Amino acid sequence: MTNTNDDSILVFEYFTASGEKDKCIISEAEALLFALIDDLSDYNLDVVVNSSYGDIISDYDNVNPILIDADIISWLEDNAAAFNKAIFISAENENNLYNITKILEENAVSIFTSSSEACLIASDKSLTYETISNNVPQPRTFRFKIDSKGYWKRAITNLYEKWQAEDPLTPLKLIIKPLIGVDCEDIVIIEDINDLSYDLEEIFPPQSRIIVQEYIDGEDISVSLICNNGKATPISLNKQFVKLENNKGTYIGGMLPFESKLKDEAFNIAKKACESIEGLNGFVGVDLLISNGEEIYPIYLLEVNSRFTTPYVGLKKIANFNIAKTIIEGTIEEIDLSLDGKVEFKKQGDNLEIRRI
Asked: 182-205: b or e for each residue (b if 16 or more CB lie within 10 Å)?
């Protein structure tokens, strides 16, 4: 496999390149891919998609379509060495983000995304907690492995009792998350420790790795940043729409920019967190929580996403600068980072709807 231009950039999005057919996933995946290709209209691009999605990139004059029938990771293992530069979109599921980045690095491809080591740390919620624990406020966090005999329930109960004893007058809730997960995937809120008697192994089967955190009531927000050479520059504060139903959380969209008196504090925490993880580069999203006022800190960091996140699609519509081009050229310190207007993005059924507000 040889690319058509030594100056071209390899571009792909994991789900469209792998042939994913879940319409809810694909609407968001396509929106991210289209935004990236549009931002890079001044460059020659080698864009990889599954052959079943060949028509979605057929109208771009600067795109050399590469249609594949294998999954993108297998294809990269065989073909990455043919390319010089790459910028891509992938989530953390099954360590895909880390694995893809590692393949590109091992094939000497220059990437405009985070290093594999940074992806490994940011993808693993426990590693993130440990890496930046002394720099920004975070909910107390412990890592567990689900064992087949149920010992994990006793361990979590002991943790609950210890934390509750520290503040017996305030009812304690816990939140359980997969160690590596995205978009509130498989998040369970435990309002009563007796709920652990229910069969949570339907969600977390034996050998699953999870984290248990103290649950903090508040408002879900995020910060979008551009990282370059160890410096993180916040570009937008975003409101996150998260639906809680049957003690489970589901991410359904967001709005940006979000006006808050705590904007500067949120930017400062997100910046510190990103600059604490060596190798973060390009577009990065940091999830935060504005507490309801009864906690020690006004804002807590929840996780770092070392990748393009959904707010990128909204930012492209209102940013007075070209985000992807800024990342490629490393000109973040030289441009106007202002935003013009507001935008809301929501998952409606199988579609991601984006509109100015």
From this structure: bbbbbbbebeebeebeeebeeebe
What is the DSSP annotation of 187-228?
-EEESSGGGGGS-GGGTS-TT-EEEEEE---EEEEEEEEEEE
pTM summary value: 0.93
Give helix 72-79 / helix 96-106 axis angle, nearest 10°: 10
Distance, in Å, from the CA atom of 72 to the CA atom of 16, rounded to the nearest integer, reads 9
Q: Are the C-beta atoms of 247 and 188 separated by less than 8 Å?
A: yes
The tens place of each residue's pLDDT in the chain, 357 residues long, gives: 545 556 899 999 999 999 988 777 889 999 999 999 999 999 999 999 999 998 899 889 999 999 999 899 999 999 999 999 999 999 888 899 999 999 999 999 999 999 999 999 999 999 999 999 888 999 999 999 988 888 888 999 999 999 999 989 888 999 998 888 766 567 888 888 887 766 677 788 888 899 999 999 999 999 999 999 999 999 999 999 887 665 566 778 899 999 999 999 999 999 999 999 999 999 999 999 999 877 788 999 999 999 999 999 999 999 999 999 999 999 888 888 999 999 999 888 778 889 998
- Tell me, what amino acid is at 65? P
For residue 266, the 8-state DSSP code is H
- Give the three-class secondary structure for 160: helix
Compute the distance between CA of residue 303 and CA of residue 125 in angstroms, rounded to an integer: 7
> Phi/psi of residue 316, each to 5°?
-60, -30
Beta bridge partners, 282, equal: 227
Q: What is the DSSP string of 44-67?
A: -EEEEEEGGGGGGGTT-TTEEEEE
Number of residues assigned to the chain: 357
